[in-house]
Amino acid sequence: MEMSGNRIICVTGLCGSGKSVISDFLVNKKKYLFLRFGQLTLDEVKRRGLEPSEALEKEIREEIRAKHGMAAYAILNLPKFDELIKKGNVVGDGLYSFEEYKVMKEHFGEALKVIAVYAPPSLRYKRISERVMPTTDIDLRHRPLTVEEAQKRDLAELEKLNKGGTIAMADYTIVNTTDVNNLLKQINEVVEEIENG
Questions:
Q1: 8-196 is a CATH 3.30.420.270 domain
Q2: Parallel/antiparallel/unpaired status of strands 90-93 and 8-12
Q3: CB 3.0 to 4.6 Å from 10: which of 28, 60, 75, 92, for a disulfide?
Q4: CB within 8 A of 34, min separation 6: which ones?
Q5: pLDDT for 57-68, tens place per residue?
């Protein structure tokens, strides 16, 4: 695809690692346009008139991939990314399967950079179970999960969604084991390197 000179940064990592914090930083501080891969799942939940839950979302994610293949979320979002990248730099929040990574890389080439964010399971589960969802979070990006829900989600993402390959092939890995200020310092350094590289 002919590029406009703009970039797409896709953020990957397991639940509670800090993906949303990084994406919000790129939107609020660096003025990136935003697209969440998994919004397709919540849109389908809403279309069916159902209440979101981890079990229902897992079922819908698996249905979408059964219908469209393991690269479904990249393929279905490509037209949206194509439109956004014409307007500016874009952050793609929640790149999952390795197949999605390959579709995005083939389509966007060097305009695509992937950032993986890592935190150990015990820290992630603590963070995600203690979350307080803002009332303004209509897209459910910051909702809490129980430790059991988070563990099940990890296993599903690694065993059924091939997320490990995406994390392993990231251009940058940020280790998020201290506080949000340290995470923001690291992401700022990575983005400066990407933008100046």
A1: no
A2: parallel
A3: 92
A4: 23, 26, 27, 90, 91, 93
A5: 889 988 999 999
